[in-house]
Design brief:
5-stranded parallel β-sheet, 13% strand, globular
Length: 561
């Protein structure tokens, strides 16, 4: 057996600090009033909901970001780059808030507190709870439509254009994988951040009608308004209520389409550049140089997020060092994920002077302090995929795929197997492929699963997709299993190494110790949601404007023409 450690790239490090605890094991607390005051003062604060995403989606404060306890060590350093940023952690009585706060302290965060009273206290104060995920962006999209009267067409109106072969181009602004799953027949995949850059190439005749669609409302509305605000001469409409509206109208979606904006050569970008720049100027986006960026990065009192908003392949070929990858459309759609520190600064980079100003314009209207750097391909000296910084994993005993296969073969002849395999990857990853017979459990309930659900065994082997997360999970269980005299090991290289070694995997026969709570399935995902759930989602989106008014912490301002 061997001990392996992951590499650990390091990062370095207004709201008064919480009072020091009186007892070493106590955690500082902040009240609901403290948190709301910080949001209203627009000082930096990270309000973290550490429950699973499904629980988070049932209700949370407007600016709360989901940083699930199950992945804390893998995600914290990338999403919370400043180690002394004020952090407030809460749950809804699940018991994961305090352990998560202590883990954040162990990861080097120096200003970590619990929300006094948890989510109950927020409710008891009469404050708003918002359902679903990516709520700030979705609420902002509704406000944009209300203020700008973004033009839209119903599903029947768009279908009529298609049926009579009108001069119309349908552009799907979601991620390509979403587009492949289901889209309007004949639609072209143009992720939202590419829309202004590519629209003139895809609809070169100014008389061609452009219909923009997503699955619901937000990305359709922002996409259509982006084209209008950037001066595209064509008639532009959002598909009202997206593929949900199309489905509710009784119309059939296409599956497995493969038409992409990348199939069309890039033409003259000068008009797109001018339009994106003008929109950014109207939205009061700052343009900075490298010297200013370096000053901001040296400022230990502020968090500065850096994002490259181009496509994944472009980013991998070369990008500015220290810039994370966040395609522009998804960055605007998922601000709570990419930038959980409310009040932080955002700096965007591209190579064409179109995509960064466009994304920055919307982020500025959402109340973020945002700036763009001028395109400079010579600065793109870093290559490869986006890898979040992570701490060294704790030392653990490991087992090779070959040894695990031998143990499992021996167990086949035993009435009571000696080895149990538990997969701690995200549940969707486990369902797609797992070691035959492996169990899945939420990390927070793994100890309970071993006591009450998973059959007893002398040896416990933890696995995951690449074997990194299981090392941290093993640290949670080490003392408990040692007391019980049980052996605890981590599979080297995880399920990927097992598969690469030629051992069998399966997607059938899942063994779920508890219901999946680590991911919320959006009502606009996939192809098998009940119509009632789809309609309820659209109704919910329409209700967001009233909630925005009641909450009062958003600071959105929609730029006029």
């Amino acid at each position: 057996m061997s001990v392996l450690n992951t590499d650990s790239p390091t990062t370095t490090p207004e709201l008064p600090r919480p009072a020091a605890p009186r007892h070493p094991v106590a955690l500082p607390t902040r009240t609901v009033a403290d948190v709301r005051a910080a949001l209203l003062a627009r000082v930096e604060i990270a309000l973290l909901d550490v429950r699973g995403e499904a629980a988070y989606a049932t209700g949370h404060p407007f600016w709360a970001a989901n940083l699930a306890a199950s992945r804390l060590e893998l995600d914290a350093w990338g999403r919370l780059p400043r180690r002394d940023v004020p952090i407030v952690v809460y749950d809804d009585g699940e018991g994961v808030a305090a352990p998560s706060a202590r883990k954040l302290q162990a990861l080097g965060y120096t200003d970590v507190a619990l929300l006094s009273g948890g989510l109950d206290a927020w409710c008891e104060a009469g404050l708003e709870l918002f359902r679903d995920v990516n709520v700030p962006s979705k609420a902002f999209g509704e406000l944009v439509e209300a203020r700008r009267h973004t033009p839209s067409l119903s599903a029947d109106e768009v279908r009529a254009l298609i049926v009579r072969r009108a001069d119309v181009v349908v552009l799907d602004v979601r991620r390509f994988d979403e587009y492949r799953t289901m889209s309007l027949p004949g639609a072209i995949s143009v992720p939202g951040g590419e829309l202004v850059r590519r629209a003139r190439d895809l609809a070169p005749n100014p008389a061609t009608t452009i219909v923009v669609h997503c699955a619901g409302r937000t990305r359709s509305l922002i996409g259509a308004q982006s084209l209008i605000d950037a001066g595209i001469p064509n008639p532009v409409f959002a598909l009202r209520n997206g593929t949900i509206g199309w489905t509710l109208a009784g119309l059939a979606l296409a599956h497995g389409q493969g038409r992409s904006h990348e199939d069309t050569p890039v033409g003259d970008l000068s008009a797109a550049r001018e339009g994106a720049g003008a929109l950014a100027a109207r939205s009061r986006v700052r343009r900075i140089n490298d010297a200013t960026l370096n000053e901001w990065l040296a400022d230990t009192r502020r968090t500065t997020y850096r994002f490259d908003v181009r496509g994944a392949s472009e980013y991998a070929r070369g990008h500015r060092p220290g810039f994370r990858h966040a395609p522009g459309g998804q960055l605007v759609q998922e601000t709570d994920h990419h930038a959980p520190v409310r009040g932080a600064r955002l700096v965007l980079s591209d190579d064409d002077g179109i995509r960064a100003p466009l994304a920055a314009a919307w982020l500025a209207q959402m109340g973020w302090e945002v700036a763009v750097l001028p395109p400079d391909e010579a600065a793109h000296t870093a290559t490869g995929p986006d890898v979040a910084p992570q701490p060294d994993s704790p030392p653990v005993a490991t087992v090779t795929p070959a040894q695990l296969a031998e143990w499992r073969a021996a167990d086949a002849d035993r009435e009571r197997p000696e080895t149990v395999v538990i997969d701690v990857a995200p549940s969707i990853t486990y369902l797609v492929r797992h070691i035959p017979g492996a169990w899945w459990s939420p990390r927070a309930r793994l100890s309970e699963a071993l006591r009450t659900v998973i059959p007893p065994s002398r040896r416990v082997v933890l696995t995951g997709n690449l074997g990194v997360l299981p090392r941290f999970v093993a640290a949670d269980l080490a003392a408990e299993l040692a007391t019980e005299g049980r052996e605890l090991l981590v599979l080297e290289g995880g399920t990927t190494a097992w598969f690469d070694a030629g051992h069998p995997i399966e997607s059938a026969n899942p063994r779920l110790a508890f219901p999946r709570d680590d991911r919320y399935r959006r009502p606009y995902e996939g192809i098998d949601h009940p119509h009632a759930a789809m309609q309820a989602y659209i109704d919910w989106e329409f209700s967001l404007l009233a909630q925005l008014d009641r909450d009062g912490t958003h600071f959105f301002r929609v730029a006029e023409e």
